[in-house]
Amino acid sequence: MTNSWYFAIGVLVFIVGLAISIGLHELGHLIPAKIFKVPVSKYFIGFGPTLFSRKRGETEYGVKAIPLGGYISIGGMYPPKPEAVQANEASAKRSRMPAFLRKIVDDAQDSNAESMKGFDESRAFYHLPIWKRIIVMFGGPFMNLLLAFVLFTILLTGIGKPGTTTTVASVNPCVISLSATSNECAPDAPVSPAAAAGFLAGDDLVSVAGTPVTSWSTGTALIQQSAGKPIQIGVLRDGKPVILTVTPALSERYVVDAAGQPVKNPDGTYTTQQVGVIGITPVTGLVPQPITTVFPTMWETVAGTTQMIANLPSKMVDVSSAAFGTADRSIDSPISVVGVGRVAGEIAGTDVITTQSKVATLIGIMASLNVALFVFNLIPLLPLDGGHIAGALFEGARRQIAKLRRKKDPGPFDASVLMPLTFVVMAVLMAMSALLIYADIVKPVNLLG
């Protein structure tokens, strides 16, 4: 297939992955809502015209044309609109609002009342205990976190991350000293221990000095400890075991840290040591990792995403400068779903990386996307899930304070009064999304160089 077809496949994979991520997010709300007997009239993936829908029980399930979101309709999110004769105080508060704000709140209350038509009022969401409401609202982000865990597990343990494999890439004909200015062997340079022992490119290290080897760093450490001592190294060559006897030569090498980077001295020079070397280099590729690496990777991704969201206002200024000016788009610039889809297509269509690396990168993108959905939805602002959780916690705190002060129970917190703020948040999010989409079209982030 041509690159354009691979590009289209990459975009399609992203769209399907996005739809699945959104569908599972909404399922995370739906399942506990059903368990707690809250009425849910609709469960839809996407926006726009309905492509398919079917009613099962009291819930209509369906798919809409634009797979960039989803929603479920939970009945009774807010307390019912009070009657004027029974709620003079509430009516007075409403009367102090500007007319357009009062209209927003009233519309929210009317929509809330509509969501309970045909259902018993006692099943309304606002009647649930605080902890149950938190579970329902946290269920969506939790599903994204769970999906991210599954994807990171597949990526790290099944495919791996870039690193050195246990396969020999090349055998140096001689041992090059650390101070050498060229990689070429001098005429009088002695043959490297590996070349003398008969190592070949493609040999796969199995053991060093009787110790099984599962990583290149393990084998290197054993070789470094054996300068001047004959040791046996087991390799697989064309699928057959071969034992090679080699005597590592003593040579100066840089000291490296756990990440494989040279250790610097306070004066800026690098730390060196005398170790045993034999003159082989490894094949680099995707190296499967133990399951214990999944949680640290997820934590780093969550922390990085949180920091990115915290810095989003300043980042959006940079995006605007790039989109409407001559400034370059930063490699760490935030991007829209359109931009992510384009990146997925470019990765699938490029010829500079292997198919395995393409699959790994696409899985990594979807895992990171779900972490972003988890973090973003927990921002304590309506209409995000974090806003509903914050409202439930506020109600619980308010009731507890009233109880401690032996005051009358203030009752459910009417979050509909925050709808004007919600509209502001939605307007800001829509404006940011529009700017990112525009920037991703006119000046996209170039991740492939």
Q: How many DSSP-defined strands?
A: 10
Figure out the total of helices. 12
Strand ordering within the main sheet: 5-4-6-7
- Mind summarizing the main beta sheet? 4 strands, antiparallel
Radius of gyration equals 30 Å
Class derived from helix and strand content: alpha+beta
The helix-strand sequence is HEEHHHEHEEHEEEEEHHHHHH
Instruction: Tell me the domain tally.
Output: 2
Strand content: 15-25%
Report the oligomer: single chain
Span between termini: 23 Å
- Give the overall pLDDT as a whole number: 86
Relative helix content = 40-55%
Which stretches are low in confidence, meaning pLDDT under 50 for 5 or more residues running?
A: 84-94
Silhouette: elongated
Please describe what this structure looks like.
- This protein has 449 residues and is an alpha+beta fold.
- It contains twelve helices and ten strands.
- It has helices at residues 3-35, 88-95, 99-114, 130-159, 193-197, 216-224, 294-310, 312-324, 337-349, 355-377, 385-404, 419-442; strands at 40-56, 59-74, 161-171, 204-208, 211-212, 231-237, 240-246, 249-254, 272-277, 280-287.
- The strands form four sheets. Strands 5-4-6-7 form a four-stranded antiparallel beta sheet.
- It is elongated.
- The model is unreliable at 84-94 (pLDDT under 50).
